[in-house]
Design a protein that fits this description.
It is a single chain. The protein has helices spanning about 45-75, 80-105, 145-155, 160-165, 200-205, 210-215, 225-240; strands spanning about 5-10, 20-30, 30-45, 110, 110-115, 120-125, 130-135, 140, 185-190, 195-200, 245-255. The chain has about 260 residues and is α+β, with helices and mostly antiparallel strands. The strands form two sheets. Strands 2, 3, 4, 5, 6 and 9 form a six-stranded antiparallel beta sheet that branches. Strand 5 and strand 6 (about 120-125) form a beta hairpin. The protein is globular.
Length: about 260
């Protein structure tokens, strides 16, 4: 599998700090090329949210460079991968929670990550960052761990109502905000031409899924320059629509 990849991130029109962090890697391995991407949206205010999101990124970057090659060498499998990710996330959750307790603040971060190996993807998710798959249409593969998503799932709120609800930023869980976390792990088949899009909530609050698909589907995206420019167009459109949050998006197009 080959990949076209790009990302864009912006502090936005209101905040002075970008609490979002991202990771994007493509590497040659004995299993062929693999792609790994992560988006984290930190919380805690000023440098604390940035610290939380970067801590998760640093831990997963270290995993990718040191543990991942050994996992491939020993015989890559989903169970082993998810066990490693689970251990990393519970460890960083404990570290962030204890740091916040000592500082008497609530510090934390969302995380959504994807690893593409061969004809399969593997993902992990906590919070309200999202993973979308674009093929003939656009589908969100993750489910937000948020108050409004719980209301939607229970039939007490519509998607449109959730977009305007003042409680839309309230999370049920995030990495570092509590002693325990429940991580979502998911996997699926990858076809050539699929695109996987990871984003913070600042990217998709003001932009509708059909607008994302129309801007990024495979008939439009031909190379990395086009992919970046189209991601940047969507980021700029978010700011035109007065999005208040940091804005981050990462895209992986499979070839």
């Amino acid at each position: 599998m080959n990949f076209v990849v790009a990302y864009d991130t912006n502090v936005g029109i209101q905040k002075s700090n970008n609490e979002d962090s991202l990771l994007l890697k493509v590497a040659k391995t004995p299993l062929g090329k693999i792609a790994f991407a992560v988006v984290c949206d930190g919380m805690g205010g000023l440098e604390f949210g940035e610290l939380a999101s970067k801590e998760v990124i640093l831990c997963l970057d270290e995993w990718f460079h040191h543990a991942m090659p050994q996992l491939i060498k020993n015989g890559f499998n989903q169970e082993g991968l998810f066990q490693q990710w689970d251990g990393i996330m519970h460890n960083v959750n404990r570290k962030l929670y204890e740091y916040g307790y000592q500082k008497k603040i609530q510090i934390g971060t969302t995380i959504t990550g994807i690893l593409i190996v061969g004809d399969a993807y593997y993902a992990l998710h906590v919070g309200d960052t999202r993973l979308y798959k674009l093929d003939k249409n656009i589908n969100c593969l993750t489910q937000d761990h948020s108050f409004v998503q719980r209301e939607i799932s229970n039939g007490r709120m519509t998607e449109e109502e959730a977009r305007e609800d003042p409680r839309k930023n309230i999370l049920i869980q995030a990495v570092g905000t509590g002693k325990q976390i429940a991580i979502d792990f998911l996997s699926g088949r990858v076809e050539k031409g699929d695109m996987y899009l990871l984003c913070s909530d600042g990217f998709r609050n003001k932009i509708y899924p059909d607008e994302i698909w129309k801007t990024l589907h495979k008939e439009i995206v031909k190379d990395e320059n086009v992919l970046f420019q189209n991601l940047h167009t969507l980021v700029e459109e978010n700011m035109t629509r007065m999005e208040q949050d940091n804005i981050t998006v990462v895209a992986i197009q499979t070839l």
